[in-house]
Design goal:
2 domains; 198 residues; mainly alpha
Length: 198
């Protein structure tokens, strides 16, 4: 009986000792994570991500998915992130100090992907410019008398119809290639009719 009690006490002591060791190791690990130190993994990963983001911005600008203004704004934000990165890299930091920078970088990556997925409205602007030019030509033709009023009204109604459809299409969503082609061909037809008369 005494031998069994002795063995149970020894087993209990081993359990307590093991529990104390595990708790001690966990405390050391938690302290290591919160202690200021260098984080080379974060440095390398952040450098790589910033480099890839800069390439993505350049590719977007080259392919026309980003306007020069959008690319410039993105590069300015990227420069601000690089400054924050340099500050963190130059000193010893905690892991938590890297979180805001990594979050900003992730948000910027998503922002650039969204802008590239839904290209800016460069084409829409060109179509709007064409509409403005046609409007001026109609007005000028009526004013100088080279365009009869009845025909001028017909051209104006056609242009208003094209403009109304165009504005409805771009109101809540990106302009598709098919829609752009259709609007462009309608403007071409109207322009050729105006050229024939003027």
């Amino acid at each position: 009986m005494k031998a069994i009690d002795f063995l149970q006490r020894g087993f209990l002591k081993k359990k307590i000792l093991l529990l104390a060791i595990v708790l001690g190791m966990m405390t050391v690990l938690v302290q290591c994570a919160s202690v200021s130190q260098r984080w080379p993994e974060n440095e390398r990963r952040t450098e790589d991500r910033m480099f890839l983001l800069q390439q993505e911005i350049g590719n977007g600008l080259g392919s026309g998915e980003l306007t020069p203004n959008e690319a410039q704004n993105s590069l300015t934000k990227l420069d601000n992130l690089r400054r924050d990165y340099s500050v963190l890299r130059e000193r010893t930091t905690t892991q938590e100090e890297w979180v805001p920078l990594l979050t900003k970088l992730e948000d910027m990556e998503k922002e650039v992907k969204v802008v590239r997925a839904y290209p800016s409205r460069i084409d829409e602007t060109r179509l709007e410019d064409r509409m403005i030019v046609l409007q001026r030509r109609i007005d000028d033709g009526i004013l100088i008398g080279r365009l009869p009023r009845a025909q001028g009204r017909e051209f104006q109604l056609r242009l208003d119809d094209i403009r109304r459809e165009f504005l409805q299409r771009i109101k809540d969503r990106p302009f598709t290639t098919e829609e752009k082609g259709e609007t462009s061909s309608r403007l071409d037809l109207l322009e050729s009719d105006i050229n024939r008369v003027l």
